[in-house]
Amino acid sequence: MPKVLISDKLSEQAVEIFRARGIDTDFRPGLPAEELLSVIGEYDGLAVRSATKVTAEVLARASNLKVVGRAGIGVDNVDTKAATEHGVVVMNTPFGNAVTTAEHAIAMMFALARQIPQADTSTQAGKWEKSKFMGVELTGKTLGLVGCGNIGSIVADRARGLRMRVLAYDPYLSEQRAIELGVRKVDLEELFAEADIITLHTPLTDSTRGIINAEALATMKKGVRIVNCARGGLVVEEDLRAALDSGHVAGAAFDVFVTEPATENVLFGHPNVVCTPHLGAATSEAQEKVALQIAEQMSDYLLTGAVSNAINVPSVTAEEAPILRPYMRLAELMGSFCGQLTRSAIRSIQIELEGHAAELNADPIKAAAITGVLRSQVDSVNMVNAPTMAHQRGIDISVTRHDREPDYQTLLRVTVTTGTRTREVVGTLIGGDKPRLVGVQGIGVEADFAPRMLYVRNYDKPGFIGALGSMLGEAGVNIATFHLGRRESGGEAIALVEVDQRVDDAVLASVKALPQVVRVDSLSF
Ligand SMILES: NC(=O)C1=CN([C@@H]2O[C@H](COP(=O)(O)OP(=O)(O)OC[C@H]3O[C@@H](n4cnc5c(N)ncnc54)[C@H](O)[C@@H]3O)[C@@H](O)[C@H]2O)C=CC1
Ligand SMILES: O=C(O)C(=O)COP(=O)(O)O
């Protein structure tokens, strides 16, 4: 039974779902980092929000871990690169808290426009400072969205409902989508120059870190207000403080900070600053949604292999998973066949799909084929890290779908090329799910992928089968099945021999010494 650890404050619904699906679940919100390090080795899955830091060190200790699930959107607390290298899937819930976070951004905008937190404090202190809190109307004002993905789009929709004019800077936003959203796509300079209020909705990346700094602030309208409910670090906090102090920026509302938990911060204490402690996603509706979604997604992956909303592997739907599984098995076996024959640096791996296979989601099949090829070189390779490992080794990967009619209903071909050789195997599924080899090096030969096999390249000359049979017999090796194929009579041929015992090197050497034999390899599957 798989075992999952929940180390952050998720809705208890997650625990119920995991347990209902037969997953042993430990709910330990607020687990200290040192304890996480000492227990993580026991778990197949780890469910987190933003508090747990899933570092390279945690992942290095996570010998059984298969999946990290983020009940929320941002995965900057997970070292996704290290997770990929360790073969761990990282998944999030990209939509579950988007509306709630967009609403928080709108609430922050109102809080700034009408100084609600400050007015509340003053009123409850018995001051009745009616003339102190003169606000601004939002209707007719220009809102500048930096980032117009899921949350930015919802903010745009709500802002249009408030009769605001909305500009968006997002290099990945298409003109068509901008028209649908009723926003004007602009460059950053124009947004800074025109916006009365700027709200940030991008992830924190190398291109967005410090996107609002002193230089940017200087190009903004005097009296601009800034809202950040995305990530600390998008705004250089010291530069913003200086612009608030000088009066150039009229107000700032921040939910996220460079250092969290933010118990002290340069923005704190300014009269025109409103802060919340990373509450963007904190509504009961959003928390239920993300907990439920992540528990379902992680359970699906651990129990069926279905992958949804993963950051580092292609998606496989619950419907696809049972169909793809035998193909992934076949692709891995075929890759392994080629990999076991390859002893030099691989330049390329080509995966071809024909017949029914050509209609499938090729990414998982590709990942499985690469896994098979690399397995004989690297122990730790799996479906998650195989494409990265291939890339790191400079291996060129290609996938081709053919729409020609194959001799079999469904066919995969894996071709591995090194500096000097090309190895090609063709395989199919018999009865819908049983892997079967149907060709090697362009020669038709049918065989199962047996646990122990000899792969012999020979010339189709009399005497070979008898000689091979007696050599194996004398060595006490029983032949279970024997499959032959040849290019033409008397020409290049292949023998795939399933054996019941291990064939030692001395016997292999004497088989190789037979006059008809070109090469012989012992393979295992
Ligand atoms: N405060 C909170 O509690 C919450 C914060 N968030 C954060 O909100 C942010 C946005 O989330 P979503 O809208 O769901 O993400 P998303 O991925 O749907 O949208 C992000 C958008 O940013 C754009 N983008 C990327 N690089 C950019 C750049 N250099 N300049 C301008 N735009 C750029 C992308 O094209 C994309 O459209 C994330 O950082 C997420 O972690 C999300 C949920 C809750
Ligand atoms: O989903 C996100 O990206 C968030 O920032 C929400 O964070 P939280 O789950 O509230 O710690």
Molecular structure report:
The protein has helices at 13-20, 33-39, 56-61, 80-85, 98-114, 116-124, 150-161, 175-181, 188-194, 214-218, 237-246, 284-304, 320-341, 362-375, 386-392, 464-474, 505-512; strands spanning 3-6, 24-27, 45-48, 67-70, 89-92, 142-146, 165-169, 184-185, 197-200, 224-228, 249-254, 273-275, 346-355, 396-401, 410-418, 422-430, 434-440, 443-447, 452-459, 479-486, 492-499, 517-524. The chain has 525 residues and is of the alpha/beta class. It folds into four domains: 3-95 and 285-304, Rossmann fold; 98-275, Rossmann fold; 315-447, D-3-phosphoglycerate dehydrogenase, domain 3 (60s Ribosomal Protein L30, Chain: A, 2-Layer Sandwich); 450-525, Alpha-Beta Plaits (2-Layer Sandwich). α10 (214-218) links the parallel β9 (197-200) and β10 (224-228). It is elongated and about 110 Å long.
Short summary:
The protein is α/β, with parallel strands linked by helices and 525 residues long.
